[in-house]
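Hi, here's the filled form for the chain we discussed.

Project: internal
Contact: R.S.
Residues: 179
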Amino acid sequence: MALKQNAKHLAKALYSVSEQNKVLDSVHSALNTVNDLVKINSQFRAFVQSKRIKSEEKVSILNNVMGEVGHPLVSEILSFLKGNQAANNFRDVTSLFNRRYNHGKNIVSVKGTVASSITEDEKSSLKSSLDSILGKNTDLVINVDEALIGGIRLRIENTYLDASVQSQLQTLRGELLQL
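And the returned structure, exactly as it came back:
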């Protein structure tokens, strides 16, 4: 529980400092880039978790290696975290920061699933419609699942909307079985 509280404090402090220094967007981008690296690259994760590398050295290395895609504030946060839980703690800090960032920027996360791939124009049109309906900027991610047959499934944060043919067929099947 103390680790979660620590992540909350770090995310809150990072957001406040970023906002005050007007670097919120670049810190957000760097935080997510580094978080992706920690997830997929075991050598980078081992570096982050290392207790042998001093904090100052870690910051210097991160700033040099990350260059334009990194940010000194993110390097400082990473240098603060050590040990086996460093990657998990960083993931928690990133998640909490992103939640605060999205709230501050009036952004809502939407994940859509369609039966076949859609064009960029169709995706843009869907995004525009969702923006106006929800009254927020949408961060739209589209996945393809051929099992849907047709239609769309949307997950808007924690709300699920299912307008797929697969769902309609399952409903019809249930109704027919009750007869």
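Let me know if anything looks off before we file it.
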